[in-house]
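Recall that a protein's primary structure is simply its ordered list of amino acids. Everything else, from secondary elements to tertiary packing, is in principle encoded there. The following example makes that idea concrete.
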Amino acid sequence: EGTYESIQDGEALRLKKYEAFLKSGKIAKIEAAKGTKASSQEDVVLLPEEREEAILEAYELADFPKPRGEDGKEKEISTGEKEKLLFTHLDINENHLKELAMTRAENIKNYILSTGKVVPERIFLHDPDQAETGPEEERFGKVKFLIK
């Protein structure tokens, strides 16, 4: 049974989704220039100047309320503040967390099966669940095993 820790796993998923979001603009430009599908997002690197441009472009296209001044006009804020707003407005919900927990369990299952010491009919995956809460330093997602 895969488990997830909503705070730590949620932040890790949000960061991964955010990085993919920023890289998507560069990937679209590469694909348009080459006329072919770009390689995976892991292979794409954003240089510092490209990252800032990606943040500014994403902020302009973002569909959330932007900070406004007393006059009602959109406030001018720093790139760092724009990045914080973009990051915090990415939706990570329980379905994303459960998917992560299931992936953890499937990875463990595949590893066990790769050893050839257990037949597939003896391993069952259960629905993922939230990890038990404890002291902050012990909060993390994991996979629980039950042997019958």
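The chain has four helices and two strands. The mean pLDDT is 85.
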